[in-house]
Design brief:
Blueprint (H helix, E strand, L loop, with lengths): L1 H8 L11 E5 L2 E5 L16 E5 L7 E2 L12 E3 L7 E2 L13 E3 L10 H5 L4 E3 L5 E2 L2 H9 L12 E3 L10 H6 L4 H48 L3 H5 L1
Parallel strand pairs: 2-3, 3-5, 4-6, 5-7, 7-8, 9-10
Antiparallel strand pairs: 1-2
Pfam families: LRR_1, LRR_8, LRRNT
Membrane topology: Single-pass membrane protein
Family: Belongs to the LRRC3 family.
């Protein structure tokens, strides 16, 4: 009877993943999973977790709704992993309450801006092999980045070789606008498409006129070849 009473007294969702350590920090649940050789985010993280450390593992992807059940989560550390892909809805469900998100020292080249711009958290994105593009520029402008780590967001690749190896903030301060480059590219593509359609219409009209002219000439030649009425009367 005492055993069943004990089971009923333990709140559901408070069990700790076997590869992690759960403790209290300032009266809040802290789940520590650092350096545990994890390749994916544990499925059984307690629902009442406020602090979650998943740093120094081998996680490669953050799937959609990975933390959706963690409605109390405030601090999330995913630094020093091997993360390459982050889904658009990776942080769905924790956007409102999350205060700190550390994605530094991973393998992230690009990230859907929707995944970060919905967050109110202070972001750390330093030391990733970033491809400098419009989406990353918008994140830099609109997201709440940790000011101490902004200078370490460096262009690993970029549309122009001269930007490679430079901090993104320095490139933008020099007047570069990756979003306007994309807009110009889109405008050029639309212009080429419209020109191609216009050229097709012109070619069609020319062919149509020539075809009608040939038919008219053939008809005139045919009429000329017919015996005249006067010749029949004689």
């Amino acid at each position: 009877q005492a055993f069943f009473c004990l089971l009923l007294c333990v709140p559901w969702g408070s069990s700790c993943p076997p590869s992690c350590q759960c403790t209290e920090r300032a009266g809040a649940k802290a789940v520590l999973c650092s350096s545990r050789h994890l390749e994916e985010i544990p499925k059984d993280i307690p629902r009442d977790a406020v602090f979650l450390k998943l740093d120094a593992n081998s996680i490669t992807r953050i799937p959609s709704n990975a933390f959706r059940h963690l409605s109390h989560l405030e601090e999330l550390d995913l630094s020093r992993n091997a993360i390459e892909k982050i889904d658009r809805a990776a942080f769905k469900g924790v956007a409102a309450g999350l205060r700190t998100l550390d994605l530094s020292s991973n393998r992230i080249r690009s990230i859907p801006k929707e995944a970060l711009l919905a967050l109110n958290a202070k972001l750390r994105l330093a030391n990733n092999p970033w491809h400098c593009e419009c989406a990353l520029q918008e994140v830099l402008w609109e997201a709440r980045l940790d000011p101490d780590s902004v200078q370490d967001i460096t262009c690993h690749t970029a549309p122009r070789e001269e930007y490679v190896g430079k901090p993104l903030l320095q490139v933008l301060d020099a007047g570069v606008n990756f979003c306007s480059v994309r807009q110009r590219t889109t405008d050029v593509a639309m212009f080429i498409t419209m020109f191609a359609w216009f050229a097709m219409v012109i070619v069609y009209v020319i062919c149509y006129v020539r075809h009608n002219r040939e038919d008219t000439c053939k008809h005139v030649d045919y009429l000329k070849s017919l015996p005249s009425t006067q010749g029949h009367a004689e």
